[in-house]
Fold this protein.
Amino acid sequence: VDWNKVQERWNYLRPIKESLAAKYYTNEVHEKAQSLSQADQRRLLDVMMGGLCNQDSGVGVYATRPEDYDAFSFYLEPLIRTYHNIEGDTKQEHDWNIPIGKYLLKEINPKLEKVSMRARVARNVKGWNLPPSMDKAERLKFEATMEEVFAKFNIPGTYHSQTPGHKNELSNEKAEEFRKAHFLFNDMTTDNHLTTSGVANDWPHGRGIWLSEDKTKMIWVGEEDQLRIISIVHGNDLGVVDNSLKDLLTQMEKGGITFAEHPTYGIITTCPTNMGTGKRQSILGQFPNISKKGTDEKALKELAKSFNLQARGMGGEHSAMDENGTADISPSARFGVTEATVAQRLYDGLVKLYQIELGK
Ligand code: CIR
């Protein structure tokens, strides 16, 4: 690897938009990179590829296997610490004790009687490469292994594969229907961050979705993380969606798989922004006043940010808002908070956001 070229490229990108990957490519990292074995040098270059190829990167790195977080800690540790605001020796803890009947949305606003509530966790399985460095054979083997796990579930559901020629191959029409319902992920080759980092390689092989019969639980196979485990419930009690998600996680573990975990950072994810709990919990809310009927997205995003929440358009991170100012609101913290804290922060943040929306 020609590290001088890499350094030149970061220097070129820095004034356009300084990703964390560029910011932490210091002279010390530059020296250290050159002292690595050839194989590790290539691996580290792979880790940076998303950032090197995309001028709009905010983060700019993806881990290629769980071990990268230790092998390249000289580079990734300060980056992770900055992104997650980690001070001192914070170590990830888990707590799934999220009560039913405590976080009731209709108590915030009587209109929130039936809301789309979503919680997801990112997971990767111990013993496998992370998606950027899986080859086609590993992706297919992973998919087959997960199908064995799904077959043992006591929740009725079906696995739909996007692998060409798979016995349960998802038709284009059905895939579109699932995407419209926000069940299924997008064609990964449309995202430059995912293609350049290798996450989207071999698309659509080894990709698919397990969907429960009642369509409240789903598992994505082969997206940015090997697994995204999701629960979507229409209602107004945040605890219900959490309990549904925890049930699904338990089923996965009972099926015999062990999730990759780091002693400090918690759940290992491909993108370091998801480390910790790997949990993102959101509701679809409407904020016509704050967003001026969806024309001032920025106002809603900034206000949400001041309450440690993230507001996204309905179709994901970079999608637009509609005229009702419909937004997906979630707490931004993933690391150093427990799963229970994420639910509590969502609730507390929504209380503040709706006070302003309703002019209280
Ligand atoms: C970036 O650096 O901007 C992209 N790699 C995305 C970072 C946010 N993480 C994510 O969507 N998982």
Notes: The chain has a mean pLDDT of 96. Residues 70 and 207 are 28 Å apart (CA to CA). The first strand starts at residue 115 and ends at 123. The two ends are 59 Å apart (CA to CA).
